[in-house]
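Researcher: We're teaching a course module on how sequence relates to structure. For the next exercise, students receive a sequence and then see the predicted structure as tokens, so they can try to spot secondary structure elements on their own. Here is the exercise chain.
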Amino acid sequence: MATPQFNLPVFSSEAEEAEWLDSHQDLISEWFATAARAGTLKSGIAAERAISTAISADESSVVIRIPQVDLVRARSIAEGRGVGYQAYLRTLIHEGLERDGSKAD
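Model: And here is the predicted structure for the students to work with:
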């Protein structure tokens, strides 16, 4: 799959950039979702949110048992990153599958 290309304008100041980003939030969300689906999104809070959004479009519900200590830790880490713990756990599972899947190929 080809890497998506996104064209940001050139800004003359941080204020101009902030204004543009604020007024184009839907477009930026679309760019993040496209990159997440393409597997080219790297890391960070925005990446985690975009990946979880891209995945949620075709996800299935599953119940798993997680030790309480791991759940508390996941919630703490997710809170520090500004994401929900379920989105954080989905991201961890997705990244692990990608990593292990590439080893199997």
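Model: If you want an answer key for the exercise: The CA atoms of residues 98 and 104 lie 10 Å apart. The radius of gyration is 16 Å.
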